[in-house]
Structure formats: C-alpha cells, structure tokens
Design brief:
The longest helix has 15 residues, at 58-72. Helix 2 runs antiparallel to helix 3 (41-50) and helix 4 runs parallel beside helix 6. The strands form two sheets. Strands 1-2-5 form a three-stranded parallel sheet. The protein has 15 helices and five strands. The protein has helices spanning 2-13, 24-36, 41-50, 58-72, 82-89, 96-104, 111-119, 127-134, 139-149, 152-155, 177-180, 192-195, 207-215, 233-244, 267-273; strands at residues 167-176, 220-229, 246-248, 251-256, 259-265. It is α/β, with parallel strands linked by helices. The two termini are 38 Å apart.
C-alpha cells in the first residue's frame, strides 16, 4: 500500500500537485499496518490524521469507526492513545465522527475528552437531540449543550485582525465562475488542486503565475469589477482559494482564508465564499 501511495504521490508532485486523499481501502490498509507497528508508524499515523477527507466520505466512515475502536481499547496502537483517538475524532468536522463521539460520552474515562471534541463541532444535526437527552443524567453531555448555547465554538475562534495587509491581483471587467472553474474541465472538479490548474482559462491565463509570485511577498486578495456571475460557484471558490488561501489542518486538498474584493460580487458567489 505504501509503495503504491508513494509512487502516485511522486507522480503528482512532479506536476506540482499534492497527493490525493486516501481511499477507503487505503485508509483501512494504513490502519492495519499501524496496528502492526514498525518504522513506518509515524508516517502512517500522519496519513490517517491528515490525508482522509472528513465529514461523510466513505474513507471518513472507515476512519471514525477505527478511531472509536482505538478509544475503547478494542484496537491497540502504540502511537495513538485512547484520548488521542478521541481528539482526532474531533478534527473530522461533522459526519461519522459525531456518532462515535456521542457514544464515547457514556464512557467514564473518555467522556471529558469526547465532550471537549464535541464542543468544537457544529455539524451535529440529529446528534444534538441525543446529546440533549443524555444531558439529563450525564454532566459531560450537559456541558456540551451549555457550550453550544454559549457559542463557544465561535467565541474561541481567533479574532479578526484590526487590519490586513495584502497584495492585490486584479482583473478588469466581469469575471464569471467559468473563468475560475472552466466548464469544459468539469470532470476534474472533485480533484480541487488539479481543477485549479485551469484557473483563469483564456480570460486571465497569466493569473496562476502572477498570484504565485505575489504570494512570495505575502497574502494575496483577488479583485475584480464584477466577480462571480454564473452558476459554478462552489468549484469556482475552491479554485480561487487554492491559489489564494491556506491549508486547512486535517482536511486534505482544500484551503480557506482567501479574500475577494469586487465593485459588485454576485449574490450566490458571495454566499458561497462566506
């Protein structure tokens, strides 16, 4: 598994692309190898921690189930304690990890760690009702409800800076979503770094190189007179963020934190960018 992964990673690196996220099969094989131990253990743990798509991807389901087993002690991993497994569940956004964390709220030795992880999540959906029901007799579940009510997930976030110094890459006129995310390359949209290589298209073909040069000097904002008309807003924002944003911890091949300036910003593009 590792040999195949590294060969594919090297192939993509040769064209300046990061490795693809792990597939469900790769995730399972990495877990099995990690359970066996050995000199590759640290690398394997890094793959599981940072190269599995979070949320409701099939690989996330494999990861969440395994981490719950590690937390409960039914699977033993030298480099991953039960508490660390719970913390890693907390880095997976919302999805399959939520069910695991709620179940771990009922385990006395892990309830505090599980509560801490859940306090940082907002995509818990129906899980909220389960936590609320548990809160009647479980102090850790009650602490999660109180934390959500106080919006600690928000107030604990880094504050916005008073000022931001950025370089500006500006394109005159109207820039539609097809300029960011060409429809004739729609087949690559799921692979955000690959799709982002088509950013600019014929409208501003020098954009990728120009933004990369500006990033050597600091952060970059994209500016236009009219920005984001068109329907491919999600892939457009993903491509723009790939060139102007920052990596998201524990989320492979996605970025956040970019800035867009426009005389007019199309409403649906604005909503997606937010």
């Amino acid at each position: 598994m590792l040999k195949a992964y590294r060969l594919e990673a090297a192939r993509r690196q040769a064209v300046h692309l990061p490795p693809l996220p792990l597939t469900p099969e790769q995730t399972h094989e990495a877990q099995q190898l990690l359970e066996q131990g050995g000199e590759e253990s640290a690398f394997l743990l890094g793959l599981i921690a940072g190269r599995v798509e979070p949320g409701v991807s099939k690989a996330a389901r494999v990861k969440a189930k395994w981490l719950q087993e590690v937390a409960l002690g039914t699977v033993n991993v030298a480099l991953l304690s039960p508490e660390q497994a719970v913390a890693m569940l907390g880095t997976m956004g919302g999805g399959y990890n939520v069910h695991a964390l709620i179940e771990l709220l009922a385990v006395e030795t892990l309830a505090q760690a599980s509560a801490t992880a859940l306090k940082g999540l907002i995509k818990i959906y129906d899980g909220f009702d389960r936590i609320a029901a548990m809160a009647e007799t479980n102090s850790h579940a009650r602490a999660v409800i109180e934390s959500l009510a106080s919006a600690e997930w928000f107030t604990a976030s880094p504050a916005l800076p008073e000022s931001v110094v950025m370089n500006i890459y500006k394109v005159d006129g109207e820039i539609n979503t097809d300029d960011f995310s060409p429809g004739n390359q729609a087949q690559s949209r799921a692979d955000i770094p690959l799709h982002a290589t088509f950013f600019g298209g014929k409208r501003f073909p020098e954009g990728i190189a120009a933004i990369a040069a500006l990033r050597q000097e600091g952060r970059v904002a994209f500016a236009g007179d009219v920005v984001g008309t068109g329907s491919s807003r999600k892939s457009a924002v993903n491509s723009l963020l790939w060139h102007t944003g920052e990596d998201i911890p524990h989320v492979p091949n996605k970025r956040t934190g970019g800035m867009v300036l426009g005389g007019i910003i199309a409403p649906i593009f604005y909503a997606t960018a937010r």
